[in-house]
């Protein structure tokens, strides 16, 4: 039996390790959103997770690493939600329906938990050059997803595709950011209406 196969309390080492990592990610997301990444110490993250520093260092090297992992998880979940929503559409799909569906899935994934939204839109900004590179890579990934999804239904982006998709993603996140900071938030449907109209002005149907 390998170390990974050994069981403690009925769970394998791998399962226990995954659970600890999940606890760190959830605690970091909550406390970074509540107090701000810049002001939170590693000790506070560990206390929020109910775990030790030794256990933290078994999963991450630095406080920024857990922020990066939390950010990646939020982005991965949003991309999966958008992908699943688009796959579920009946083909062929008109551009407006596709845009509405994708935007709603993204905003609902991000906005369903204000902690996750605040980390993804606010707390990761300006942390370090490494994090900025990570954010840029994510923007490019979203741009590629948008371009591919629209091309699949016969839609061409106006102008330089990368710049146009950057305009769309920037508008989406800018609106989501403003929505997050409002004391009284309009329904997600209002954001989808606004952003769909803006995106439709940037495409041509082939």
UniProtKB/TrEMBL annotation:
<dbReference type="InterPro" id="IPR001647">
    <property type="entry name" value="HTH_TetR"/>
</dbReference>
<feature type="domain" description="HTH tetR-type">
    <location>
        <begin position="18"/>
        <end position="78"/>
    </location>
</feature>
<dbReference type="InterPro" id="IPR009057">
    <property type="entry name" value="Homeodomain-like_sf"/>
</dbReference>
<dbReference type="InterPro" id="IPR036271">
    <property type="entry name" value="Tet_transcr_reg_TetR-rel_C_sf"/>
</dbReference>
<keyword id="KW-0238">DNA-binding</keyword>
<dbReference type="GO" id="GO:0000976">
    <property type="term" value="F:transcription cis-regulatory region binding"/>
</dbReference>
<dbReference type="Pfam" id="PF00440">
    <property type="entry name" value="TetR_N"/>
</dbReference>
<protein>
    <submittedName>
        <fullName>TetR family transcriptional regulator</fullName>
    </submittedName>
</protein>
<feature type="DNA-binding region" description="H-T-H motif">
    <location>
        <begin position="41"/>
        <end position="60"/>
    </location>
</feature>
<dbReference type="GO" id="GO:0003700">
    <property type="term" value="F:DNA-binding transcription factor activity"/>
</dbReference>
<dbReference type="InterPro" id="IPR050109">
    <property type="entry name" value="HTH-type_TetR-like_transc_reg"/>
</dbReference>
């Amino acid at each position: 039996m390998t170390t990974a196969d050994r069981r403690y309390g009925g769970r394998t080492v791998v399962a226990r390790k995954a659970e600890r990592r999940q606890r760190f990610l959830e605690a970091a997301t909550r406390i970074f959103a509540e107090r701000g990444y810049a002001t939170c110490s590693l000790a506070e993250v560990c206390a929020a997770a109910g775990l030790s520093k030794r256990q933290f260092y078994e999963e991450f090297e630095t406080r920024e690493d857990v922020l990066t992992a939390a950010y990646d998880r939020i982005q991965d979940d949003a991309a999966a939600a958008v992908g699943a929503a688009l796959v579920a559409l009946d083909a062929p799909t008109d551009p407006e329906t596709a845009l509405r569906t994708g935007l709603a899935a993204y905003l609902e994934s991000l906005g369903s938990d204000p902690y996750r939204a605040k980390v993804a839109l606010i707390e990761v900004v300006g942390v370090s050059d490494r994090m900025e590179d990570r954010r840029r890579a994510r923007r490019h990934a979203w741009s590629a997803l948008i371009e591919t999804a629209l091309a699949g239904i016969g839609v061409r982006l106006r102008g330089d595709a990368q710049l146009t998709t950057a305009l769309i993603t920037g508008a989406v996140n800018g609106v989501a950011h403003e929505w997050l900071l409002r004391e009284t938030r309009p329904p997600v449907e209002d954001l989808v209406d606004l952003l769909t109209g803006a995106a439709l002005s940037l495409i041509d149907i082939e």
